[in-house]
Design a protein that fits this description.
With 246 residues, the protein is α/β, with parallel strands linked by helices. The chain is 48% helix and 12% strand. A 6-stranded parallel sheet has the order 2-1-3-4-5-6, with helices on both faces. β1, α1 and β2 form a beta-alpha-beta unit. α4 packs across α5, α4 packs antiparallel against α8 and α5 runs antiparallel to α7. The longest helix has 17 residues. The two termini are 13 Å apart. The protein binds D-malate. The site of D-malate (MLT) has 7 residues, from loops.
Length: 246
């Protein structure tokens, strides 16, 4: 299983899942280009480029096919991966994400945010994003998660954050990929997700054949961090029957 992290975090956002799944399957996380320990070699980092990095990591580890778990930007990258390497996907988990490209307004906000990261630094981005990334329950009652997310954001470079924003602004619409997916697919969304809401998620996800959709309670956009137990349990419940059949 390869877990692909959200923007603007890093692979440690999956730490709870790595513990929960340690006796279940082999799990692999990575710091995407521009985040965590990976450097930021470009001004703009496309989703195709990040997907190619995931594929290259698989090749380096001698893995032909994997279960992909992508949250938010990780989901955009999963769509690019599906488009480019469909045979390498055993099963798919898409969390708190969307298949469509940015609207013109969203694209403009993103490009402005990329400039802000370069001009004002990463703390300004953390201030802007934390109230959007986290649900009300977490913001009110779980200060340790708020601080964990802030530290992850602030550990990134302005260049990495700006590069990913520009890459996401230019990403393709992937709604055409939805109907072509033939891997078993689970879609998860935090019940308090303000960025990719439940209604929007229901709308795009039902275009995937045989999809399973599950709400993660008491969680916002970072559902795997905000309700780690429910998120991990959903992964195991979904994948358990597939272990012996694929
Ligand atoms: C994420 O969590 O990866 C971001 O919210 C994605 C986005 O900005 O669209």
């Amino acid at each position: 299983m390869i877990l692909i992290h959200a923007f603007p975090l890093n692979q440690t956002m999956w730490d709870d899942q790595l513990v929960a799944l340690q006796n279940f399957c082999r799990t692999i996380t990575l710091d995407l280009r521009g985040f965590g320990q990976s450097d930021a070699p470009q001004d703009s980092i496309s989703m195709d480029h990040m997907a190619a990095d995931v594929r290259a990591l698989m090749s380096a580890l001698d893995i032909d096919r994997a279960v992909l778990v992508g949250l938010s930007m990780g989901g955009y990258i999963s769509f690019a991966f599906l488009r480019n390497y469909p045979d390498a996907v055993v099963a798919l988990v898409l969390a708190d994400t969307r298949a469509s490209a940015d609207t013109p307004d969203a694209r403009e906000r993103r490009l402005n945010s990329a400039e802000k990261a370069e001009r004002e630094g990463v703390s300004a981005i953390a201030e802007d994003m934390i109230p959007l990334l986290l649900g009300g329950t977490t913001l009110e009652r779980r200060p340790s998660i708020v601080e964990r997310v802030r530290s992850m954001i602030e550990a990134n470079s302005p260049r990495g954050i700006a590069g990913a924003q520009r890459g996401m602004a230019g990403r393709r619409d992937s709604t055409d990929v939805l109907e072509a997916i033939d891997a078993p697919t689970l879609v998860l969304v935090g019940a308090e997700d303000r960025l990719t809401g439940v209604t929007e998620t229901e709308e795009w996800s039902h275009r995937i054949r045989g999809v399973r959709l599950k709400l993660i309670e008491r969680a916002g956009h970072l559902s795997n961090l905000e309700n780690a137990h429910e998120f991990s349990a959903a992964l195991i419940e979904f994948l358990q029957p597939l272990r012996y059949t694929r």
